[in-house]
Amino acid sequence: MNLLVAAGWTALLTRSVKSERRDLFSRAEGKHEMSELSVIADYGDLCGECPVWDGAGSLFWTDIAGRRFYRYHQSSGRHEIVREGLQINGFRLNRPNGFVITNAGGVWLWDGAGTVRLITEEVDGSKLQLNDCIADPVGRLYAGTCFYDPNAEYDMGKLIRVDTDGKAAIVDEGFHMANGLGFSPDCSILYFTDSGARCIYAYDYQIKTGEIGNRRVVVQVPDTEGLPDGMTVDSEGFIWSAQWYGSCVVRYDPEGSIEQRISIPAKQTSAIAFGGDDLADIFITSAAKSESLPIMPPGYDAEAGYFGGRLYHLNLGIKGKPEYRSAISVAA
To answer: Distance of CA 287 to CAs 19, 136, 164, 244, 309, Å?
Structure first.
């Protein structure tokens, strides 16, 4: 906790918007569509992740490995570093203000300036070494622990729920590499990605209690493709998944069939979010630091090519849905 609170203060860095045009091949019932992909920020993020639209004209995202947290102002095209030195693996805007963040040390409240407070670092004796997270309509937080180690035996991860009073509970377990989460438009389904198992799970979800059940695989990604990483769900209930090692974002129907595959010029495409005034803008993060793992697809070259580091923008006329804010508070 002390290391996090003492970490680097707010820094501002504004750069001119860069643009990159690229033809995208979309597969949707055999149709070919052309769209424009643009680069809206290029900080060379080592591990850009977790883009979140705030509903008020700005997008936030994080560089996990680079320990930087950013904000993009869509109306002006400006972007800035909000904070450096703080590890943010996942986050959500918190009601009434500030953020809830997840990282290797647990779950934290951050006021958006200098104060970071630990909410919890373990549950039932299990360390909360957390990756991505999501808030539900009530303001609870869901996040997955990750202990994946390609060179040794490792503990399997758990799916955690943090209630609005800050108390944490294990709601499921048995995961290799916990990653992106999402809710169906009617909030009857919670989706959860296990990158190590190359799948996206679906759970029946109860808004009133926060309980989940009936886990099943809705998407199983073949070994020949990239790993499913960050994800979101659009207003039609279709699942969008960024493919690390796959240079693409894939749109699946609610039954898990591929509806569209969108090429991205970054080998480590990491996460996706909808934003903009009508929630039809798509923001995609990527990662510059090459990660060579035994679960890479056959023939993947972890030494050559452009891996990522940019924040991309795309608009296909498909609308997303607002992301919920957490509402976690704990006594001082």
So the answer is: 18, 27, 32, 9, 4
Any idea where the domains of the chain sit in the sequence? 2-315
| 124 labelled catalytic | no
Residue pair 182/232 in contact (Cβ under 8 Å)? The answer is yes
How far is residue 266 from each of residues 45, 243, 244, 249, 319, measured CA to CA in Å? 12, 10, 9, 11, 24
Residue 7: what residue type?
A
- State which H helix or E strand residue 157 sits in: strand 157-162
Closest among 301, 287, 308, 307 to 65, alpha carbons compared? 287
This prediction's pTM: 0.90
Q: Do residues 234 and 212 make contact, with C-beta atoms less than 8 angstroms apart?
A: no
- Whole-angstrom distance, CA of residue 299 vs CA of residue 223: 11
* pLDDT per residue as tens digits for the range 230-253: 999 999 999 999 999 999 999 999
CA 231 to chain centre: 6
DSSP string for 181-232: EEE-TTSSEEEEEETTTTEEEEEEE-TTT--EEEEEEEEE--TTS-EEEEEE
**Token pair of 327, please?**
């509402």
Q: Is 77 in contact with 17 (CB distance < 8 Å)?
A: yes
What is d(CA 91, CA 328) in angstroms, rounded to the nearest whole number? Answer: 12
Class at the top of the CATH hierarchy for domain 2-315: mainly beta
Q: Write out pLDDT tens, residues 26-73.
A: 443 333 343 589 999 999 999 999 999 999 999 999 999 999 999 999
d(CA 97, CA 110): 9
State how far the alpha carbon of 229 is from the alpha carbons of 52, 75, 121, 211, in Å: 15, 29, 24, 24
d(CA 3, CA 108): 13
- Tokens 């959500």 sit at which residue? 92
Whether residue 10 contacts residue 80, with contact meaning beta carbons closer than 8 Å, is answered with: no
Separation CA 321–CA 235 (nearest Å): 5
| Residue 209: CA count within 13 A, CB half-sphere | 7
The one catalytic residue among 63, 229, 234, 281: 229
